[in-house]
Amino acid sequence: MADGAAVWRPVARCVVFCSPCMKGCSRGRYPYGLCSMADLSLRNIKKIYDKNVTAVHEFNLEIADKEFIVLVGPSGCGKSTTLRMIAGLEDISEGDLLIGGKRVNDVEPKDRDIAMVFQSYALYPHMTVYENMAFSLKLRHVSKDEIDKKVRDAAAILGITEYLERKPKALSGGQRQRVAIGRAIVREPQVFLMDEPLSNLDAKLRNQMRAEIIKLRQRIDTTFIYVTHDQTEAMTLGDRIVIMRDGYIMQIGTPQEVFDRPANIFVAGFIGSPQMNLFNARLEKIGEGYQVSCAGATIALSDRIQARLTEKQVGERDIILGVRPEHVLLKSEKSSYTISATVDVSEMMGSEVYLHVTAAGKDAVLRIPTTELTEEQRGGFSYGTEIHFTFRSDLLHLFDPQTEKSLLL
Amino acid sequence: MGQSNPAAAPQKNLSHVLQRRETTVAYLFLLPALLFFAAFVIVPMVMGVVTSLFNYTMKSPVSAESFVGLGNYIELFQDKVFLRSMWNTVVIVVVSVPAVTFFSLWVGSAIYQKTGWVRSFFRGVFYLPVVTGSVTVVVVWKWMFDFQRGIFNWALKSSGLIEKNINWLGDQRVAIWCILLILFTTSVGQPIVLYVAALGNVDQSQVEAAQVDGATKLQTFWQIKWPAIKPTTLYVLVITTINSFQCFALIQLLTSGGPSNSTSTVMYYLYRNAFSLYRYGYANAMGVVLAIIIAIFSALQFKTMNTGVEY
Which of A209, A257, B257, B304 could form a disulfide with B264 if both were Cys (CB 3.0 to 4.6 A apart)? Predict the structure, then answer.
C-alpha cells in the first residue's frame, strides 16, 4: 500500500500536558491531565470480529491537530468501523489509538472529548431541539446561563434558532442534520467525528450542507474526521483523504494528490467522476525512451513519465493504462497514434459531451468540451459512429496488472 | 390558485368514490367482529349495569318489584366482607404492579443484550408459568406451601430459621403474601418478553450518541432508553393492574378466600355472590364498582406515563 502520510500535514502544535489537578487547563474538561491538543495517532489498529473476520487491517494514520481527514471507500471497507473505534463505540482488537499523545484504547467514549454526528442523526426524539443540544452540557454540569448561551450561539450559526422548541419529528431531514451538528459543536470537542452525515439528504440539500460544513470548519477550528462513500464530499472537504478498501488503506493524500497520482487501480477508479478509463496496453522501450502500445495505437509518454520509468528501471511489459475521461483528445482522422472506437451513447451536458464508447473491446467514457466539437458533432453522436482519439501524454497513469500498483510512484 | 383546474375535478370525484368504496369494504370486514363484540361484550356490560340496580336473584328476576335503585351499591359499602375484599385487592395491586414492572424491567435490561440462547433461556424460565396454566402452577405451589410436607417449611426448618412449621395458607397474616408471590411469578413472564423486545428496539445510534455526549450507563438508561420504552411500560402497567384487580383463579384454587376472608378479593367475592349465593344484581354492582376503579387507575397511568412519549 502506498503510504502517503508523509506527503502533507499541517504543522502539529506541541502537546500540552496539564498537571493532574488540571490547573491551568483552560478547558478543564479532559480528565486525563491533557488538554487542547487533538492530534491523533492510529498505530497498527486492527478490528477483528468473532475472532476471524477482520474488518480493519493494520491501520496507520497520523492526524495533525485541526486537520480535516476524510475516510472514504465503498460500503464494507471499514471506514465507519475505524471512526467508531476512534469514538470508543467499538473495541480496538489490536494496536494503539492516541489522542493528544495519550493512549485512549480503554477510555470510555464520554471521556475522550470527542463529538460525533451520526448518519441517522440519532436525535433524542423525546427532547426538543434545545434539549437535544443542551444534553451533553447538562451532563457536564455546565451552568444554565452558559448552556443557554452556547446552544443559542450554535443555533444561530446553523440557522435553527426558530426550531429550538420543536421536537425532532417536526423537522425536515436537513434541519435534523443541523441539529445533530449543533449538538456536537456546543461541546467544543477536541475531535469532531462525522459518520456519513449527508447521506440521508437529497442531492440539493447535500450540496448545501457540504458548503455549510466547509464554513463550519472555518468557524470552529478543531480536528475533523469525516466518513463518507461519496468521493465528491471527500475531495471537497478533506485536507487529506484516506481511501480504504476491504479494511486496508489504499492511499492517503491530499485531494489533488490522490486525483493526480493514484497509487493503484482502485484509487484511480474510485476518485474522479466519470471514473478513469483503463485499457490493456504494453509498455515498449525505444532506445532509452518508452512508449505505450494500446489497441494498435502508439501512445507517446511525457518527459516526466519517461524519467520516472527510467528511474525505476521498468522493462518492457504488459500494463494497465489509465486515462481520465477529460484527458482524451478527439481526432478527426485515424492515424497510428489514435485509437478507434464506436459511440454507444452520447450525453450532451451543455459545456461538454460525455461519449460512452467501445474501444479496444472495453467500455470507456470520453469527456469532450463542446468547444472542441465541430458544428455537426454538437448536434449529437448517433449510435455506432466511429470516432478516433488519443490521450494527453503528460496525464497518463501506468499500473502493474498483477499488483495493480502504479508504476509511476 | 383562484382558478379551478378542470382536469383535477374528475380525479377528485373518482378518488372520493374510491375512498367511499374502500370505507364500505373496511366496515364490511369489521362487521363480524363488531357484531360479536356487541353481542358478547357491549350488551352484557349494559345488562350488568342495568341489573345492578335490581335485587336480581335466582328467585326474583328483573322486574319493577325487584328494582332497588342504588340499594345494591349502598349495601356494598356497608358489607364488611366486600370492604375487606376491596382492601385485599388494593394491597395486591399496590404491591404486585410495581414489583412486576420493576422486576421485569430489571431482568429485561439485564438479558436483552446477551447472546441468543441466554436470552431464550431466561425468557423461557420466566414465561413457563404463564403457559403452564394456573391449575398446574397452583397445584405445585400448594404442595410447596403445604403445612406438613411443603418444601418451604422443610427448607426453613432444616436451615434452622424456624422451629415450628408455618401454616402459610392458613395464617391470616401470611396467606395474602403467598397469593402475591404466586401472582408475581405468573405475571412477570410477559412483561419480561415485552421489555426484551422493547429494549432491543431502542435506536442504538441514540444510545451511542448519549455515550459520546458524556452519559454514564445509568444516565443513558434513564434519559434515553427509558423514554423509548415508556409505551411498553404503560402497557405493562395497565395490563398488570387489570390482572391484579381481577385476581381470582389463584384464590379460588388455593384458599377460597380464607382464612376469615383474609385472601378474598373483589373478583372472588363477586363470584361467590353470583354463583354460590345467586345474588346476581349485587354481584353486578360489585363488577361495576371494580370496572370504575380499574378505569380510574388506567386513566391515571395513561395520564402520567403518556407524557413525553414519541411514537
Answer: B257
